[in-house]
Write a structure and sequence with these properties.
The chain has helices at 10-57, 84-93, 95-102, and strands spanning 77-78, 81-82, 108-114, 120-125, 134-143, 146-155. It is of the alpha+beta class. The chain has one domain (10-155). The strands form two sheets. The protein has a four-stranded antiparallel beta sheet. A two-stranded antiparallel sheet has the order 1-2. The protein starts with 9 loop residues before the first helix and ends with a strand.
Length: 156
């Protein structure tokens, strides 16, 4: 009487099927958790960057009365009020040089200054079109003796 092992039995197929299903579930959960963590990391990064950039607009900059040729650190205020000349320099400098000066990195930004009637007094940058992530930061300032709102959007 010969005794042979049967490796291709029903028990083996059931065990392999259960093991493979278990591995697929583990891999799916790992992929979901990993993508969720990456999303949270990007949202946190964009939120911090939005806050930092909105702070840039509220500084005087270096030197205090900077122009396009001598700007070291950007800032749009003088005597705690938004300065029309510095705001005009943004348009003269262009989007990419301003983006590099304020340290946006791989993200894009949009600046909008508007009054209490929601009338836009100035806008600069790229407005988000179908973004994956957006962070909006709102500040209050004085521009031409009027209280205004300064929106900063950072997006990807």
């Amino acid at each position: 009487m010969s005794i042979k092992a049967q490796t291709l039995s029903y028990d083996f197929f059931v065990a392999c099927t259960i093991f493979l299903m278990f591995m697929v579930i583990i891999f799916s959960l790992y992929s979901y958790a990993n993508s969720h963590i990456n999303d949270i990391w990007k949202i946190d990064e964009i939120t911090k960057l939005s806050s930092q950039i909105s702070e840039v607009w509220m500084r005087e900059g270096t030197p205090e009365n900077w122009n396009i040729s001598n700007v070291i650190v950007m800032g749009l205020t003088s005597d705690y009020r938004l300065n029309q000349t510095k705001i005009n320099y943004l348009n003269e400098m262009g989007y990419q040089p301003v983006k590099e000066k304020i340290g946006v990195g791989v993200y894009d930004f949009y600046l909008r200054i508007y009054d209490s009637a929601n009338k836009t007094m100035f806008s600069f940058g790229r407005y988000p079109s179908e973004p994956d992530y957006v962070s909006r930061n709102k500040r209050i300032g004085i521009f031409n003796s009027t209280i205004v709102f300064i929106d900063t959007l950072v997006w990807q």
